[in-house]
Design goal:
The complex is a heterodimer of chains A (329) and B (71). With 329 residues, chain A is mainly α. Chain A has 8 helices and no strands. With 71 residues, chain B is mostly helical. Chain B has 2 helices and no strands. The longest helix of chain B has 36 residues. Classes of the chains: A mainly alpha (329), B mainly alpha (71).
């Protein structure tokens, strides 16, 4: 869909065009993700909570790895084939994927109870608080990650296409790995108790420090490559723990019949954070550079932390749960 | 029997999702690196992603609704 695009196109036309093409791709991805998240809940017997979490963990972990692969593939394609040819290759791949949809039976995973439209906004106080916290959490990541960081790597540190793509790919894959390992890690750190409100508060406030440290590092005369790489590793590690605890809590706060609804509402908040983060990422980077993005990121994490102070411990608890992970992109 | 069928369906959905995820990641990188290279400002690039994010919100909103009605 993007293939007719050339450099000669005027800005007013090129920008909406790319936006629409990306949106189509996003819709397809999100719908598939929703069905996948809901489908697993019905596949695994309701009682086997730990098994559910294991499946979701595998799904999400592999998702991050695949997204990382996508980053790398994108940057390599751009290096080797150029923009237009790359888009053709991807369009063909997408059409092939569409065909897999015909293999599915109709009415898969039907949920018995009908839900009215006004119930779309979650009635649960906990879900709403968690969603608000998640808004800021993901905003905090995206405010420097979406535009600021890659542009900084490419334009200021002069990394090549595949260096940027490859590094971000490795980061995302590593991040997925930490998410998969998060259940074990958290279980160990919590001495076997399931995550509580205090767990998310601890991890969110810990994360606050990281963007501030990276910003200070870049403002000093240290090697910016080292600061960025080290900082990103630390940020990814702690961010993944946050995300994993969030994903556990949203399920712990959710009624079974409403799983698609609550997860949907919650990921919507998540997308809202990304929306704000994305626009701010471009805007702040253009005005104050990468350091500005990092300070805003810190403020966002701080907001997420303050909001999470309002959370109560979930009532539904399993004695020794593995954790759900998911980062809701 | 029920288990194997649902696992099969789950696998199909998941594989399709993976395919979308790879192309989605690739597209993101393509757009970002290419438009930065040809001189778009960071804010202009951010707007390239804007529609994408808005649709993310809309599909999640509707997806939750459709999901709870149709599965």
């Amino acid at each position: 869909m993007l293939t007719p695009l050339t450099q000669d196109w005027p800005l007013w036309f090129a920008v909406p065009y790319v936006m629409a093409a990306q949106a189509m791709s996003g819709v397809a991805k999100d719908l598939t993700k929703m069905s996948s998240k809901s489908a697993i809940r019905l596949v695994v017997p309701q009682e086997a909570e730990s098994r559910l979490f294991k499946w979701v963990a595998i799904l999400t972990g592999s998702k991050n790895a695949l997204k990382g692969v996508g980053f790398f593939v994108g940057s390599v394609l751009l290096t080797l084939a150029g923009f237009t040819a790359s888009l053709w290759i991807m369009a063909i791949a997408l059409i092939l994927i569409m065909f897999t949809g015909f293999l599915l039976p109709r009415g898969m995973g039907q949920i018995k109870k009908k839900i009215k439209f006004r119930q779309l906004f979650s009635k649960s106080k906990e879900i709403n608080i968690l969603s608000a916290a998640r808004f800021f959490l993901f905003g905090a990541r995206d405010v420097w990650f979406v535009v600021g960081l890659p542009v900084y790597l490419q334009s200021v540190l002069n990394w090549s296409f595949y260096e940027v793509g490859g590094f971000l790919a490795l980061w995302v894959i590593g991040y997925g790995g930490v998410q998969s390992a998060a259940p074990v890690l958290l279980k160990y750190l919590n001495r076997g108790r399931p995550p509580q409100a205090a767990t998310i508060q601890f991890w969110t406030f810990t994360l606050t420090i990281v963007p501030a440290v990276i910003a200070l590092g870049l403002m000093s005369d240290w090697n910016p490559n080292a600061v960025i790489i080290g900082g990103l590793l630390l940020f990814g590690l702690i961010f993944a723990m946050n995300s994993a605890v969030h994903s556990y809590l949203v399920l712990a706060y959710t009624d079974d019949e409403k799983v698609a609804l609550n997860v949907g509402f919650y990921y919507m908040a998540n997308s809202g954070g990304r929306l704000a983060g994305t626009v701010l990422s471009g805007l702040i980077y253009q005005i104050w550079g990468i350091v500005g993005c990092l300070w805003i990121s810190m403020v966002f994490v701080l907001c997420a932390g303050m909001i999470s102070l309002k959370l109560e411990d979930p009532k539904r608890q399993q004695p020794y749960p593995s954790l759900a992970v998911g980062d809701g992109e | 029997m029920a288990v194997s069928t649902s696992v099969r369906n789950y696998m199909i959905v998941t594989l399709a999702y993976w395919g979308f995820t790879i192309t989605d990641g690739a597209l993101r990188m393509l757009v970002l690196l290419y438009f930065n290279q040809i001189g778009y400002t960071p804010l202009q690039i951010a707007f390239l992603f804007l529609f994408y994010e808005i649709f993310g919100i809309v599909t999640n909103f509707l997806g939750g609704w459709i999901g709870s009605r149709l599965g």
